[in-house]
Design goal:
The chain is α/β, with parallel strands linked by helices. It is built from three helices and four strands; from the N terminus they run βαβαβαβ.
């Protein structure tokens, strides 16, 4: 389930804490996007979260205007 722009959260960084945030926000139904520079990491996460937006830079995520907020992990 993809949240609407009013409550969608984007997680920046997919390390250990980032993955915890991603999982939790997805469980709450408010994960809207993920940002990471590592293309292989994003590719793997796209398998688990196919309805989420993915970005390789924070600026492209901000410019998309899809999110109510960001978590930097």
């Amino acid at each position: 389930m993809t949240p609407d722009n009013n409550n969608a959260i984007c997680v920046v960084g997919c390390g250990n804490w980032g993955r915890n945030h991603i999982r939790t926000l997805h469980e709450f139904g408010i994960l809207g996007g993920i940002v990471d520079r590592n293309v292989e990491t994003l590719k793997n996460l796209k398998i688990t979260y196919p309805d989420i937006s993915f970005f390789d830079t924070v600026l492209t995520a901000i410019d998309s205007k899809k999110f109510a907020g960001f978590v930097v992990a």
